[in-house]
Amino acid sequence: MLSVPPDLIRGWPAAPEDSLLVEGYLVALESVVGAGFAHEIDEQEHRRLEGVTESDVLREAAWVVLCAGMRERVIRDLFPDVSEAFLYWRSAEDIVHARHRCTRRALATFCHRPKIDAIVAIAERVAAVSFESIRSALIRRGVDALQAFPYVGPVTKFHLAKNLGLDVAKPDRHLVRLSHAAGFTDPARLCSAVARATGDRVATVDLVFWRYATINPGYHGLFERYR
């Protein structure tokens, strides 16, 4: 019997063929909860675009830009100082007004000029078109609306969309590898299948699998025992 808190399990397989897939998911879930990341699961499960603020957009966009091609734990250690440099994401207008000071302070923590410039450019765009306009575009167009941001591309747009509350999976290398191991062509199909069987959101399933991969070097073998 898995020692996963009952409130983290929304349901059970809808069909017998789902049972092995869900068993693998629950193994990942138990590992993630046991490693102390239950709060991440709860936050992702309750995150919705309707509750997102301008500060959230600025902060999450900066996080995704910095994480591109980097280990998450490295950015996690640096992000508080970057946030301080960017006025704790108070508003796009404040960042634009203090762009030179923000840039100088951020570079002292994270010396990657293109990424820091991209964060400033995102603030400039938010200030120019308004936060409400950006949120409306997300509601109408979904993840594609985010590619207007610099340093946000075909893969990272899903990462940012998920962090802003859209119910999507991101096709990063960990999720792609797990999807193939489970017999799926891509993470969206894997996470959707698990979401249908368990009642968890697609974005939550994505988070569980991704976090499991970051704490288990042999994560790609998760489904091998069930195949």
What would the keywords be for this entry?
single chain; 227 residues; mainly alpha; 2 domains; 12 helices; disordered N terminus
Verbal overview:
- By secondary structure, this protein is mostly helical.
- The protein has two domains: 99 residues; 112 residues.
- The longest helix is centred in the middle third of the chain and has 17 residues.
- The chain is globular.
Termini separation comes to 21 Å
Mean pLDDT: 90
**Strand/helix succession:** HHHHHHHHHHHH
Helix content: 55-70%
How would you describe the oligomerization state of the chains in this entry? single chain
Q: Unreliable segments (pLDDT under 50, ≥5 consecutive)?
A: 1-16
Instruction: Give Rg in angstroms.
Output: 18 Å
- Per DSSP, the total helix count is 12
Total DSSP E strands: 0
Classify the beta-strand content into a percent band. Answer: under 5%
- The secondary structure category is mainly alpha
What is the approximate shape? globular
The largest pleated sheet is described as:
none
Number of domains: 2
In short:
This protein is mainly alpha-helical and 227 residues long. The protein has helices spanning 19-34, 38-46, 54-67, 72-85, 92-97, 99-109, 113-129, 131-141, 156-163, 173-181, 187-198, 202-215. It has 2 domains: 6-46 and 169-226; 52-163.
List the helices and strands and how they pair.
Blueprint: H1 19-34, H2 38-46, H3 54-67, H4 72-85, H5 92-97, H6 99-109, H7 113-129, H8 131-141, H9 156-163, H10 173-181, H11 187-198, H12 202-215
Helix pairs in contact: 1-11, 1-12, 2-12, 3-4, 3-7, 3-9, 4-6, 6-7, 10-11, 11-12
